[in-house]
Amino acid sequence: MEQTLSSYRIFYAVANNGNISKAAKELYISQPAISKSIQKLEESLGVKLFERSSRGVTMTPEGELLYTHVKSAFETLTIGEDRLRRSIALGMGNLAIGASSTLCKYILLPYLKDFIKEYPHINISIACHSTNRTLKLLEEEKLDIGLIGKPEFAKNIDFYPLQEIEDIFVATHDYLHNLKVRGVGRQHILQSSTLLLLDKENMTRQYIDSYFQDSHILVHNIIEVSNMDLLIEMAKISLGVGCVIRSFVEAELQNKTLMEIPLKHPILQREIGFAYNKNTKISKSLAHFIEFYEAQNG
């Protein structure tokens, strides 16, 4: 488009008013400036847009054709301006959050339930990825904030801890009984079991692999999944020994659907929390969310 928006604004005003004088008053510019702009637009397009008379101006067929498109464009702009004003008045905005499906279900959704009540007009999108993937998207500024396990090393990331989590190994009574029948002692359960673990892209899996290495535990049979909920269900049907987060299986531990396997060397607890790229300009929506979770956690 060779013409400036102001040229089309003047054309639109003249066409609506059918009079250069009225258009000049509406736009707060002089009549000669209006006439010059119209003349320049006509020369640029190579067509005559208006017929002049003592009564004012009327559009030529070419002018009417152009007017239909200019009218549509300015109506769209008006709608956009109205929606923007309404968005500002309502405190609307967008917030993109990253979290694993497990953390989303057990940690993030309870936060969002109360946050949405306080800020119902903020549009929220959730991307379910591993912590490592979420960190990468935060660094690429494709997410506003992420709910992750505390990373050991992460450039340009501010981390706000929410709570500590504890990884444990669980299995059904039947699975443990079958191991005992085969002569597997308690101290060799992990080495002799089919282990149900998250995949290697997951930070939890990397943390557990480090635990195996530090504790000199050699594991052999592994089934990998990408979702802890699925892992828990697999453990509940006696498919193997699952590595899970304690707080996510409290009900199963209480009703003895799953049994915790005692470890010679307990797995150290680790932190989860919200993280965001400290080099990114914080939007109003993100600022509201940061204020909200900081207030929730004192």
Overall number of strands: 12
Number of helices: 12
Biggest sheet, strands in spatial order? 4-3-5-12-6
Largest sheet: 5 strands, mixed
| Radius of gyration, whole Å | 32 Å
**Cα distance spanning the termini:** 55 Å
Beta-strand share of residues: 15-25%
Morphology: rod-shaped
Instruction: Bin the helical content.
Output: 40-55%
Mean pLDDT: 88
- Low-confidence spans: pLDDT under 50, at least 5 residues? none
The chain-level structural class is alpha/beta
Order of helices and strands: HHHEEHEHEHEEEHHEHEHEHEEH
What's the quick description here?
The chain has 298 residues and is of the alpha/beta class. Helix content is 49%, strand content 22%.
Write a concise keyword list for the protein shown above.
298 residues; alpha/beta; five-stranded mixed beta sheet
Task: Walk me through this protein's architecture.
There is one protein chain. The protein is α/β, with parallel strands linked by helices and 298 residues long. The protein has helices at 5-17, 20-27, 31-45, 61-90, 101-118, 131-139, 173-181, 189-192, 203-214, 228-236, 250-254, 284-296, and strands at 50-53, 56-59, 93-99, 122-128, 145-149, 157-165, 167-171, 194-198, 221-225, 241-245, 259-260, 270-277. The strands form 3 sheets. The chain has a 5-stranded mixed beta sheet with strand order 4-3-5-12-6, with helices on both faces. Helix 1 (5-17) packs across helix 2 (20-27), helix 1 (5-17) packs across helix 4 (61-90) and helix 2 (20-27) crosses helix 3. The protein is rod-shaped. The model has no long low-confidence stretch (mean pLDDT 88).
